[in-house]
Specification:
It is built from eleven helices and 15 strands. It is an alpha/beta fold. Strands 2-1-4-8 form a four-stranded parallel beta sheet, with helices on both faces. The chain has a four-stranded parallel beta sheet with strand order 10-9-11-12, with helices on both faces. Helix 4 runs antiparallel to helix 5 and helix 8 runs parallel beside helix 10. The N terminus is likely disordered.
């Protein structure tokens, strides 16, 4: 898995470690602020959506039906016409009566957007049209809008210089997070304005254009029902068990972190935060290069570690309501292929209630920061989707959250 050293904002460690000690301020997500997206052409999608709506007491009018392929991967054109556009229309309809903050993508909706086919110039034409619109808007613009226009122009011009080499592949869910954002560059990622590490930086996106997105999906409909039921059951008692953090090296000097070392250090910090929270019966941090081996992680409730590419290691016996993710490339490339050993699919099959992973190569700095994510969860004020949002560096990119977005495994401290 590659690392891009140009992203210096991730290395602002003074701000980063200060933020970890601060209480979070995002308002708790409510059921009426959730919209559920189901695919009318996919078996079980609507039935599962209605099951979730009832269980979480979400207004029945907050269901958006789309009609698209049930394949896990789709083209950009299919995404625009059959997923994004009807979702936008549904949000306009529902938003007249309530504020919407979160989308839930159901079983049967495509998982990833494929890269453009050779010779497909539609994306180039879209960028050129957007560039002309920005030039026209620039003439009468004043600050701060002018600065945003110039930044977007520069980004689009760089993309156009690449010609047909542009790659707009992405997770469907990551693009749907920007369903309210209008036009934006499709090549590469966009900084998430909710990410705590970017709190002092101007970003192309604004918070009012970003939605939380989570997915209720898995290898089969039974798994999806279990995700819903497990979250509701565990919320009544609180998540208990053991936490496992699988780093590769001893904690480095915080002033010299970058690349893989930054995320390895974040695993150390996550273990410390969870241990101090008192939420778990035991917290185990492994700082050796070898991963946890079969049978070494019983009663697992929380997990984060790396790096076994596309090869799940059956080290865990998961307690009900468990949450975890593995930092490696394309671990959410499929949730359906029977023989696949990618971590998201296998963790769902083995019993976790929520997990996170990328559909393609994300680069390591695109993963949610483990210390931010698990610290927010352990505080108990924020739901699964909110904890994910504030710890996720980039949107319009590769990452997917699987699980009930309203899931709150711990009561507030």
């Amino acid at each position: 898995m590659a690392f891009c050293t140009c992203q210096k904002q991730i290395g602002l460690l003074v701000v980063f470690f200060w933020l970890l000690g601060q209480p979070t301020t995002v308002r708790a997500l409510e059921p009426e602020e959730v919209v559920v997206i189901a695919n009318s052409r996919a078996a079980d999608s609507l039935e599962l959506a209605e099951y979730y709506l009832r269980k979480r007491h979400i207004p029945l009018g907050n269901l958006v039906r789309i009609g698209t392929t049930w394949n896990e991967h789709c083209s950009r054109d299919t995404y625009n016409k059959e997923i994004r556009n009807p979702v936008r229309e549904g949000l306009v309809r529902i938003g007249k009566n309530s504020q919407i903050r979160c989308l839930v993508v159901m079983y049967g909706v495509p998982l990833a957007i494929r890269p453009p086919e050779p010779g497909d110039n539609k994306l180039l034409a879209q960028h050129q049209k957007r560039l002309q619109a920005l030039k026209a808007e620039q003439e009468g613009a004043t600050e701060p809008r002018l600065a945003a226009i110039l930044a977007e122009k520069q980004q689009i011009e760089q993309y156009l210089a690449q010609g047909e080499k542009m790659d707009s592949r992405a997770a469907v869910d990551s693009e749907l997070a920007l369903a309210l954002a209008g036009d934006y560059p499709l090549e590469g990622w966009l900084p998430n304005p909710y990410f705590l590490g970017f709190h002092e930086q101007k970003t192309l996106l604004t918070r009012d254009t970003v939605l939380m997105v989570s997915r209720l999906d898995g290898p089969n409909p039974a798994t999806v029902r279990r995700l819903i039921d497990d979250a509701l059951l565990v919320e009544k008692t609180g998540l208990r068990g053991r936490a496992y953090f699988d780093a590769r090296w001893p904690m480095p000097d915080k002033q010299q972190l970058g690349g893989y070392a930054l995320y390895d250090a974040a695993l150390h910090t996550a273990a410390e935060k969870v241990r101090k929270s008192g939420r778990m019966d035991e917290v185990r941090l492994d700082a050796n290069e070898a991963l946890f081996q079969p049978g070494e992680a019983p009663q697992a409730a929380l997990y984060c570690g790396w790096y076994s590419l596309g090869h799940y290691i059956d080290a865990f016996s998961w307690v009900r309501g468990a949450i975890g993710y593995h930092i490696a490339s394309a671990e959410c490339a499929t949730l359906k292929k029977p023989d696949s050993q990618v971590w998201c699919k296998r963790m769902l099959e083995e019993g976790v209630a929520a997990t996170i992973g990328p559909v393609y190569e994300p680069y390591v700095q695109a993963f949610p920061m483990p210390d931010m994510f698990f610290h927010a969860l352990a505080e108990g004020y924020l739901s699964l989707a909110e904890s994910y949002l504030i710890s996720l560096p980039y949107l319009s990119w590769q990452m997917v959250l699987i699980g009930d977005p309203l899931y709150k495994p711990f009561a507030p401290n």
